[in-house]
Amino acid sequence: MPITPFHFGPGALIKVIAPRHFSWTIFALANVLIDLEPVTLFLLIGDPAHPWLHTLPGAIAVAAAAALFGRRPCEWILAWWNRQLSSGWQTRWLVVETPIPLSTAWLSALIGTFSHLGLDSIMHTDVEALWPLISGNSVQGLVSLDMLHGLCVAAAVVALLIFISRPAIRP
Fold first, then answer.
1. Global pTM?
2. Which one of 96, 98, 107, 155 is CB 3.0 to 4.6 Å from 9, fit for a cystine?
3. 164 φ/ψ sector (left φ>0, alpha ψ -120 to 50, else beta)
4. DSSP E strands: which ranges in 4-105?
5. How many CB atoms sit inside 10 A of residue 152's CB?
6. How far apart are CA 33 and CA 55, in angstroms?
7. Mean pLDDT of the chain
8. Which residues have a Cβ under 8 Å from the Cβ of 125 and sit 6 or more positions away?
9. Using an 8 Å Cβ cutoff, are 49 and 126 in contact?
């Protein structure tokens, strides 16, 4: 699933369950960063392979980059988002907390890369998520592609339902 919104559904669900302990922006950044490898390979050689970033050491390296170098840009984007909101219902429903604690950045980045490995392992035969501990991919095809996408969309829908069922924040 190169840079696909399907990865973001499970992250949205985690965000509504633990809003103060999870950064969806760091999670999304980690997901995009990990897919720079297959996108680059596709552009260079025509094959969207997953040789290194889609392994345990690669995912940890991407999580570190997202947590350490992505935190401040994500905070800037969140602050910009808040400035774009007009008063009234937009600020009550759509305002977000700007600071991202370092522990939250790390947790969100690791969840982002590890969930990405899990989803891509089911979808792609060449993903060896647990390398160097375990070679190969025994979960590819565990569920159908339609089921995998459906579960990711369902996570997003459940997240949206939880979000709209909560009372709006009162400034």
1. 0.91
2. 155
3. alpha
4. none
5. 23
6. 14
7. 92
8. 137, 140
9. yes
DSSP summary character for residue 169: P
Domain boundaries, the chain: 22-165
CA 142 – CA 119 distance, rounded (Å)? 10
Q: Which two tokens stand for residue 8?
A: 């973001």
Q: Which two tokens stand for residue 67?
A: 């947590």
**What is the token pair recorded at 153?**
């969309």
Rounded to whole angstroms, how far apart are CA atoms 18 and 16? 6
Residues composing the chain: 171
Given a contact cutoff of 8 angstroms between Cβ atoms, the answer to whether 25 and 11 are in contact is no
| Per-residue pLDDT, 5 | 85
Stretches where the chain sits below pLDDT 50 are 1, 170-171
Question: Do residues 16 and 27 make contact, with C-beta atoms less than 8 angstroms apart?
Answer: no
